[in-house]
């Protein structure tokens, strides 16, 4: 289990770097490509079976069945037992606390700049 935790940690650490290098649109594009690699073609969603079958593509081949089922369950907001593209992208962001912190900082910075640029003189 420690091995799978370190693998997940290594993957998560890549998201902020990818965001910095690719920008927001580029990162979302790469996440969409990842979704395409992992999804069940017939269902158009990532299922436990498709994740297990394709997990080696992301270096996650050492994860247990319980870990893979947990990933699907954690991201499955609509309760259909699979991850659609939006659920997958949200899960990837949620699994990267550093990326979430960066996003919050950038949002706050943009809001502050908008406030400074606005003229509130009466």
Describe this structure in words.
The chain is an all-alpha fold and 122 residues long. It has a single domain (22-114), classed as Orthogonal Bundle (Recoverin, domain 1). Helices cover 70% and strands 0% of the residues. The longest helix is centred in the first third of the chain and has 37 residues, at 2-38. It is elongated and about 50 Å long. The termini are far apart. Residues 1-12 have low confidence and may be disordered. Keywords: Calcium. InterPro entries: EF-hand-dom_pair (IPR011992), EF_Hand_1_Ca_BS (IPR018247), EF_hand_dom (IPR002048), KIC/PBP1/KRP1 (IPR044205). Residues 63-98 form the EF-hand domain. One of its GO terms (molecular function) is calcium ion binding. This is EF-hand domain-containing protein.
What keywords describe this structure?
122 residues; mainly alpha; 0% strand; EF_Hand_1_Ca_BS; KIC/PBP1/KRP1
Describe, in short, the structure shown:
By secondary structure, the protein is mainly alpha-helical. Helices cover 70% and strands 0% of the residues.
Radius of gyration: 17 Å
In angstroms, what separates the terminal alpha carbons? 62 Å
Strand content: under 5%
Superfamily (CATH H level) name: EF-hand
Q: What class, by secondary structure content?
A: mainly alpha
Secondary-structure element order, N to C: HHHHH
Number of strands: 0
CATH topology: Recoverin, domain 1
Would you state the CATH class? Answer: Mainly Alpha
Mean pLDDT: 77
Write the layout of secondary structure elements.
Elements: H1 2-38, H2 48-54, H3 65-75, H4 85-94, H5 97-117
């Amino acid at each position: 289990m420690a091995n799978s935790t370190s693998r997940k940690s290594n993957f998560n650490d890549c998201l902020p770097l990818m965001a910095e290098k690719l920008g927001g649109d580029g990162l979302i594009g790469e996440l969409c490509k990842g979704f395409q690699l992992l999804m069940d073609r017939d269902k158009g969603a990532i299922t436990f079976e498709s994740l297990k079958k394709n997990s080696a593509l992301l270096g996650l081949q050492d994860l247990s069945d319980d870990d893979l089922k947990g990933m699907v369950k954690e991201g499955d907001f609509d309760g259909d037992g699979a991850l659609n593209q939006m659920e997958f992208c949200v899960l990837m962001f949620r699994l990267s606390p550093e990326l979430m912190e960066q996003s919050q900082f950038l949002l706050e910075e943009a809001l502050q700049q908008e406030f400074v640029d606005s003229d509130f003189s009466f």
